[in-house]
UniProtKB/TrEMBL annotation:
Single Gene Ontology MF annotation: coenzyme A diphosphatase activity
Top-rank lineage group of the source organism: Bacteria
Organism: Streptosporangium becharense
InterPro entries the record matches: CoAse, NUDIX_hydrolase-like_dom_sf, NUDIX_hydrolase_dom
Lineage per the UniProt record: Bacteria, Bacillati, Actinomycetota, Actinomycetes, Streptosporangiales
PANTHER family xref list: MITOCHONDRIAL COENZYME A DIPHOSPHATASE NUDT8, NUDIX HYDROLASE
Keywords: Hydrolase, Magnesium, Manganese, Metal-binding
Name assigned to this protein: 8-oxo-dGTP pyrophosphatase MutT (NUDIX family)
Needed co-factor(s): Mg(2+); Mn(2+)
Domain Nudix hydrolase as annotated: residue spans: 29-169
Amino acid sequence: MEVPGWLETLAERVARMQVPPLLRPPASGGRPAAVLLLFGEGPFGPDVLLIQRSSRGRTHAGQPAFPGGGVDPDDGGPVAAALREAEEETGLDPAGVHVVGTMPELYVSRSDNRVTPVLAWWHTPCVVHAASPDEVESVERVPIRELVDPANRLRLRHPGGHCGPAFRVRGLLVWGFTAGVLDGVLAGSGFALPWDHSRVEDLPPDVLNLASR
């Protein structure tokens, strides 16, 4: 099975990345979790699978995200958890996926999750959809070329004053943890293009209200 060279290089780079202080896990506590960064070759070139979480959710409501969730005891680790969650949320067939590597554990304080991002290649794509409507509203294969387009990039200012990367693609406003991971992944893959970092907007009130639940 042939994995693109750029993805192999990316997996090597992110495996030894330095975790930013804001995402560094605490010495103890936190729930083990995993997300799947699934890359494939779509009609518009390389793409990545994203979901939009249900607006009825308890945490991260309405937010675009990578498929994923908590690591259950039966999973045996983050790789199996990421594949299981992706199957439950999108109908993904794990048999069509080749895991390339993992990133260091990242901490999401809002949900107290210690998240391991799992990088994978979608060698045999299948139809995906919102397979768990209570958790997922929609599923998108987002082309990398749209994510790196400078017109689709900005920074969002949170009420506390912190600014983080964001993307406007396919009708989605991708921000927070997911955007931060994507920002680093795009840089590590070599696909990133220069963009205007001075383009700063406030986090929209409706998005903030959902995120504050």
